[in-house]
Amino acid sequence: MKIFRITERARDSLCRKAPEFRQIAEQTRLESFPCNTDLFLGLVQSIVSQQLSVKVADVICQRLETLLGKITAENLLSATFEDLRSCGLSGRKIEYLRGIAEACEKGVIDFKTLAKKPDEEIIRELVKLKGVGVWTAEMLLIFSLGRPDVLSYSDLGIRKGIMMLNGLSSLTEEEFALYRKRYSPYGTLASLYLWRIKDGGLTVRTPEKQASAEKKRSEKKKTPSPTAKKR
Q1: Is 75 helix (H, G, I), strand (E, B) or coil?
Q2: Active site residues
């Protein structure tokens, strides 16, 4: 089993390259996590999860595993449309899953060979499959292959995290590319922190906001209270 390891060295290196992460690194502790190295299974789970809550997607995946015994291309193709529908899958998702399974069975795509290729080549190959977009491919790079330098422009949470962390009201794709270059080769670690900023309720204070807050506190101390004036 492959483990995506989050080390103190990686944290320190990211914070040196991008000091704005330091306060976030102090507020939250990220844990290493196991990767699902079965790319086909990871892709199936990603398709199932599209536009669904984590809870609902987990239920459907569990039903699918119960139906098939093991989620493989062969088992998926042997299941009837009605059986797959009974798991809670939409007709479109069944079409996507069968298309991916057929590509695997016919050798159009070899997931074992694909896993050994560079990130960009993996993305190019995966997006050829119907129902698979860049975001889905990038999530597989992180959670199935444990690639260390993935920062997805297609992920709204990551973009919002960067904006919150840097006090930005907007973020163009060109600007995003500069942040990706800045965070490299720790893009995945940065992604994990940025998701926490967006979803974890973390307090983010940019240097400008910090200075403004300190200035207000200083001015408040200098201003005498109404009671003091009366005296």
Answers
A1: helix
A2: 155
